[in-house]
DNA sequence: CTGAAAGCGCTTACAG
DNA sequence: CTGAAAGCGCTTACAG
């Protein structure tokens, strides 16, 4: 390798990067007339280096186009500034919103992001291993169900695990999530308040953590109002499947007058199903979604929904990341970010049945 | 560090990973009674090791929970099996579809994916630098506009650059993209064929590479049919902004009877605008989108659109990646993947004005 | 097939 | 403030 160094001279006025040959700390040290240690210190925040040295090194580094190898740094250093995110397939527009916000926030603080698909193994443990293999500072798990065993393995290995959107009662494993239970409650209270009496929940049949929590909050609040919730479960979150399930529900023997869907995507499919069977929304049927994705605001949907506090969840994750890195032994923390209701046109005005009351 | 090794004994029947202490190749070598080189060979495909050695090493490695450090491997080896993807903000559902497919395809071949936001700098050069810093096998650029200078820098440094959705005429820089021009042509031909005569293009005003190409194909085919295309540009791709622009266009002095939008998202906003101003789609106005995102198929949209061949583009990228790694000096290649037309309900039946002809 | 040695590019105590 | 030395965890020629 070294043999061909400089065989191919630069012909342009660009940094002197010979083909295939990386500029190393030694090159900079040699040309600047200092030791590699000195160069290293100049590139390390808070390390001691005289102004003269700093200037010499910086100049040479710039001229040579030197950049410290993150691989070498990671190998020897204690922190890599790298975080691994375990995600599932991004089948819902919401997933992109979340990833976008997280990626942006991490980039803003100079943290690199590596992706690992939860993919085949439900536990997403291949993602954890990948995080370990690259010595990630932490792994953020936003998909699948993590087993306590795997979580424990990571924590022992010194890899902080932060769960997004799910909770695991394992020592050292932090969680950040939207207050799904609260959001479900808000949905139920809105529907009840606006006169709905036959409430239904359209969800994944408990297939995901969020789905279970949202139903719990919804059913709980409904129950307090003396209403029992009918649930419809759909195996696949695909639009067509949900549309069909909703159509069956609406055309069935006990159609609801108030529906809460696990996600906006499902709620939108329900709106279309309502139209298909000739139900008027919100006159015959009120619908509430969850997430507040852009499509919820579209003119043809105007979906009332529970707003997922993405920014809050993301900053919660960064917060917990910092805290955990600062103190690896701190107690686990679960942070639930409050949701808000965004009332649009798929629910009725307040108190329609109280019209005329004082 | 080493001092605390084994201070905290394992209490469970899990691999022996002492707190904070990584199992290294030396540990495995020592316990297996072989040299580190031997262990390395066992973990290297196609390296020579006797069956006895292999078995011993593998057993010990499993018991100890040993995994080769990718950092160390990357530092010393010639390939890292790591690819960096430069993406912009994921404001369109399409972005998630693409990333999802790419991530899945890379994972399937055992390649790790690192994310770099194009973010602030339009050139996305920070992403390139990040790719360099981690010794990525290649960088896939799917956002922003890359300057020839930066591309050249990467190629010189031995970092293959693969452009997705854009083309750059620089040596060694490969590209894969949907045939935008062809797609635009298909849209125009469909509209003309179904009787539209006043064609309009709703796009980003040439802000992106795709936008320019789609308009080019559309306007070219329209021109061959003797029709001049009116273009409407929108600065922000936000739904509300597009809705307003489309409303203005439709309510303006020269409303079109056939509209081609740069993306499905924009086309859907246009559908809603048409409804808002009382235009009937497709009777008064035909609309064609681009991408074929899930929402295009929704009952309330039923959007006729040009299908973006995501799978084809992704496999093209992997293909070019392999080729480039196998032969770094090969000529640059631009691969355009054919698009297809998905005809739904926002365009008319064929030849409505020829009704009665033989 | 196998091990000793050198090296990847960097940082971290350690003396000065 | 500075440099020599050791080491991070691995692989790659090089002899055997």
Automatic annotation (TrEMBL), chains A, B:
> Which superkingdom?
Bacteria
Transmembrane residues, as ranges?
none
What keywords are assigned to this protein? DNA-binding, Repressor, Transcription, Transcription regulation
UniProt GO MF annotations? DNA-binding transcription factor activity; transcription cis-regulatory region binding
| Record's protein name | HTH lacI-type domain-containing protein
> What's the short name of a Pfam family annotated to this entry?
Peripla_BP_3
Name the lineage: Bacteria, Pseudomonadati, Pseudomonadota, Alphaproteobacteria, Hyphomicrobiales
Q: Which residues form the HTH lacI-type domain?
A: 23-77
């Amino acid at each position: 390798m070294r043999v061909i160094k400089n065989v191919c001279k630069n012909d342009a006025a660009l940094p002197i990067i010979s083909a295939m040959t990386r500029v190393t700390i030694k090159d900079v040290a040699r040309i600047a007339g200092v030791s590699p240690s000195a160069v290293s210190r100049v590139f390390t925040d808070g390390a001691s280096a005289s102004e003269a040295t700093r200037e010499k090194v910086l100049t040479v580094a710039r001229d040579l186009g030197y950049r410290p190898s993150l691989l070498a740094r990671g190998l020897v250093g204690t922190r890599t500034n790298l975080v691994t995110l375990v995600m599932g397939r991004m089948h819902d527009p919401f997933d992109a919103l979340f990833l976008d916000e997280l990626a942006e926030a991490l980039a803003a603080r100079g943290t690199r992001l590596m992706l690992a698909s939860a993919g085949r193994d439900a536990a997403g443990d291949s993602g954890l291993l990948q995080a370990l293999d690259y010595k990630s500072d932490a792994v953020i798990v936003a998909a699948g169900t993590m087993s306590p065993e795997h979580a424990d393995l990571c924590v022992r290995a010194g890899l902080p695990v932060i769960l997004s959107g799910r909770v695991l009662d394992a020592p050292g494993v932090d969680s950040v999530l939207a207050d799904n239970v609260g959001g479900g409650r808000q949905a139920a209270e809105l529907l009840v308040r606006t006169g709905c009496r036959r409430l239904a929940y359209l969800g994944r049949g408990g297939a995901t953590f969020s789905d279970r929590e949202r139903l719990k909050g919804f059913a709980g609040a409904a129950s307090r109002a003396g209403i029992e919730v009918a649930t419809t479960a759909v195996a696949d979150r695909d639009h067509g499947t949900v549309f069909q399930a909703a159509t069956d529900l609406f055309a069935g023997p006990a159609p609801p007058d108030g529906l809460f869907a696990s996600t906006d995507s499902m709620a939108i499919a329900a709106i279309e199903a309502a139209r298909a069977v000739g139900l008027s929304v919100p006159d015959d049927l009120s619908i509430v979604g969850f997430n507040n994705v852009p499509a919820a605001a579209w003119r043809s949907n105007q979906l009332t929904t529970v707003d997922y506090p993405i920014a809050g969840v993301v900053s919660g994750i960064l917060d917990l990341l910092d805290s955990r890195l600062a103190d690896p032994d701190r107690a686990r923390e679960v942070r639930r970010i409050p949701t808000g209701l965004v009332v649009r046109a798929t629910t009725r005005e307040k108190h329609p049945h109280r019209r005329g009351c004082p």
